[in-house]
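Fold this sequence, please.
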Amino acid sequence: MPRVSVVDLGHNLHLIDAYLVDEPHRLACYLFDTPERVLIDCGPSRSIGHLFAALDHLGIDDVAVLALTHIHIDHAGGAGHFAARFPHARIAVHTLGARHVADPTRLVASATRAFGEQSMRDHWGPVDAVDPSRLLVLDEGDRIPLGAGRSIEVLYTPGHAKHHLVFSEAETGACLIGDEAGVAFPHGHAIQPATPAPDFDPRATTEQLRRLAARRPSILGFAHYGPHPDPQAALAQAEQRVWEWVSWIDQAGREEDITASFRRWVLDRHRAEGVSEEEVAVYDRHTFWTTQVEGIRRWLDRRDPTA
């Protein structure tokens, strides 16, 4: 049975728990319930029924725009299903991701290599194509209207992925950041980077984190999961952690599988900072450790050694 959890963040902005893989506090979608409704991210098709149930609970019968922070399947895998459920909605995506939403063949192949065929079936579900005529292609400086004089500003924020976007809105003071700063699961909100191959770039990430900090957002909305209670501290910690991870993996070298030792190091760092064992278990269960190591190693292999 679908589950419903909606939190009113004020100024017509709601946090919807999308119950990624049927678990709470895995994926936060953000709804602007304004004259022109905009939803930020939708999750994969496997669990999108929870999102639909929450929208039904709110009495939402139409959405103007589904805006995707990026096209990774845990954020956008259900976009085709969403488009079918809301036939008047536009699907907004960065220009570098648009072709993969219209034809997800390569996206699905990449995800299958990363997660395996069984995980694709059990956790993520099918990825349906979106009619190209339904796409709203976005880039830096674009705006998505909300009606009543409000709009969402689009920020192009490569780092986690080359096609990543952050959505900023003035009345709420919200920056809805997808995975750009990593993950911060409740309730301790320890920051942990998200470093997947093939696009992860710590230099680009650092640039974007500092850019977001300069805006001094009052709501820093993580996709995984929810608003952080101290946006400035979160962004500073995110930058520090990214480079700590890169340094650890760089020093570990390439001669053996370091995934297990890297996992122990990260989780022990959380414990040393006072994160409870229950919360450590959440980070452990929700982290694709091999993917994180591979993303950093790939960047290390292609970086300019003289930089």
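DSSP finds eleven helices and 13 strands in the chain. The chain has a mean pLDDT of 95.
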